[in-house]
Amino acid sequence: MAAKRASAALADYTLARQLFAQDCAKSAESKAGAKVLVAGGALPLLVDMLSSAPSWPERPEDAVGDKKETWLADGGGAQPGAVGKDLDAVRMETARLAAAALAHLAAYNVTAKHVAKPSVLSALVEATQLLEALTALWSVARHSAPLAELVATLDDDVMGAVVAAVLDHKEAVRHAAVLLLRDLCKRTLQLSQLAVDAGAGCALTQLLKDTPGLCRLHAAVALGYLAAHSPVLALAVIAAKVSQRLAHCDGEVPAQPFDQRRQPVTKSCVHFST
């Protein structure tokens, strides 16, 4: 009986974490709400939710080989609402909501400085939700050159991961990645060189071919930033055979600039490091 009560308590706690992350993501959409969350100490809790979640207690007698059933498989004494919830689904949704909340917090100058810390940014890089992580990193990088450099130089694999995400199979992920890459490239010659070394020229050129609309336009802008920093980088862009691809962008002007709209953070289950 005590084990069942403990199982129910952990189930309720895990679901409460998900509800907390959901409320934070909603509240952080406004500047006032974002300030309250930061002042109230929500940031470290959200960072913790990116990578960790409590595990359901398991009954040793239910173990068969490598497969074990949890208490929630048959209710296990959990309260209504918790029964049948899948642990992986709860963990993934909690991480997604936490990353979305951090992305909203990073969108405002007054709260971005709290998100722009190596520990927080590193947690985003390792997050399981690629779309939300890219959106949060972009929200930080777009504020200033120092913050862009902080994002791009967290470790040696960040720029390569961003370039790889530019060719992701999901269009929303490609869009978030190209926005981040664009705002990294426009800042300094060093960041543009890092992007070119990671293969950004070829990836952006491929994006011009495969992805229509705003995503294609932002890829063209990113290539322009790359080429503008130095003659060497301009030659690298030319070598990527970008000129014929730019013709596809002719006339594709959005009715409203993308950067002037708050973009909704949608679901993604792709790992940032893949």
UniProtKB/TrEMBL annotation:
GO terms for biological process: cilium movement. It comes from the Eukaryota. One of its GO terms (molecular function) is microtubule binding. GO terms for cellular component: microtubule cytoskeleton. This is Sperm-associated antigen 6-like. It comes from Thrips palmi (Melon thrips). The gene is LOC117643776.
